[in-house]
Amino acid sequence: MVRSTCLVLTLICIALAALVAPAAVAAQNDVSTHYLLARPLPASANVRPDMGFPYGWHRNHQSPIHHGMDYLNRRGTPVIAAGGGTVFYAGNDTEMIVGPQPNFYGNVVILQHDLSAPEGGTIFTLYGHLNSIDVQTGQTVNQGDVIGRVGATGIAIGSHLHFEVRVGNPTDYNAVRNPELWYPPLPGRGKIIGRIVDVNGNLAMGIRFVLSTASSVLPSFTYAEPSIPVDPMYGENFVYGDLGAGCYRLRVRGGSGYAYDEPICINAGQTIFLEVHLKS
C-alpha cells in the first residue's frame, strides 16, 4: 500500500504489472476480476463516455439518476458486444420493460455474458437508444460483433449510446454497476476509482469535484444518492477513467474555500483507488 503524507488521504496505486505490497495486491486482484469487458463501440468511434453526466448523477435533478454511461456518437455508428454471450433481449422496451417506464431506452439490446461478477451473479450488458438493432433474441454473439447502431430512441436527448452493466437480474433497473469499473483505461491513460467521505464518515453524495492541471479542468460528480448501487468490492462513489498520465489536483469546494485540495499522480495503464476525507 502506498500512503500519502497527507493524513486525509489513503492512496493505493495499482500498477497492473508491478510487484507491490500485499494490501495493494488485493486491490490489483479486484481490478483483474472486474476488467472482463471491452468498450461497446469500435475504436473508430468515440469510445470515451460523457463525464458531465456520469453514472449515478442526475444533472442537478434535471434528468433521472443515470444508471449507466453515455457515449456521444453520430446516428448510425456501429455498437458492438462488450463481451461474448447470448442475446437476452433485442427489441423495443415497450414490449419488455427494463427501465422505470415503457419506452425509456427505446430500441434496446441486452446481452447475457458467460461471466460472473466477483460477488456472484451473471453479468449482463444493456445497450439503449439504438437507431436500429442487428441481432435477435437468443442469438449467440462474440465480443466485438455489431449488435446495433447508435440512435436517439426512448427518452434520449441527442444521438448517443447508453450502456449499462447489470448483475444477476437483466430486467431489474436497480441491478446496475458503474460500467467504468468493467473495462480498462485506454492505452496510455489511467483510471481513478474513488470514495469521497464527509466529516461524519459517510459517502459524500452529489458532490462536484474537479481534477485540474495547469492547462485543463476536468469536472465530474459523485453519485447523487445513497440508493445508487455501488460495487461491493470498492464501495465507491465516483469513477474517473481515461485520464492522461501525469499529476493533477483533486479539489472539492467547501464553505469559503476547499474542503479538499491535494495532488494526485497517475501513470499510463494504472488504476488507482483513492479515498478522500473532506475537512469540512
Please explain how this structure is put together:
By secondary structure, this protein is mainly β. The protein folds into two domains: 9-34 and 184-277, Sandwich (Immunoglobulin-like); 69-177, Glucose Permease (Domain IIA), CATH 2.70.70.10. The chain has one helix and 17 strands. The protein has one helix at residues 22-34; strands at 9-15, 69-72, 78-80, 85-92, 107-116, 122-133, 140-141, 146-150, 160-167, 176-177, 189-197, 208-212, 217-221, 238-244, 246-254, 257-266, 270-277. Strands 2, 3, 4, 5, 6, 7, 8, 9 and 10 form a nine-stranded antiparallel sheet that branches. A four-stranded mixed sheet has the order 1-17-11-14, covered by helices on one side. It has a four-stranded antiparallel sheet with strand order 13-12-15-16, with no helix packed on it. A hairpin with a 2-residue loop joins strand 15 (246-254) and strand 16. The longest helix has 13 residues, at 22-34. It starts with 8 loop residues before the first strand and ends with a strand.
Query: Largest sheet at a glance?
Result: 9 strands, antiparallel
Beta fraction:
35-45%
Order of helices and strands: EHEEEEEEEEEEEEEEEE
Helix content: under 10%
For the secondary structure, the number of strands is: 17
Structural class: mainly beta
The overall number of domains is 2
Question: What's the total helix number?
Answer: 1
Which shape, going by the Cα principal axes?
globular
- The Cα radius of gyration reads 19 Å
Give the CATH architecture of the largest domain.
Sandwich
CATH-assigned fold name of the largest domain: Immunoglobulin-like
Low-confidence stretches: 1-27
- Give the rounded overall mean pLDDT: 88
Q: How would you name the CATH homologous superfamily of the largest domain? A: Carboxypeptidase-like, regulatory domain
Q: Tell me, what is the CATH class of the largest domain? A: Mainly Beta
Report the span from N to C terminus.
26 Å
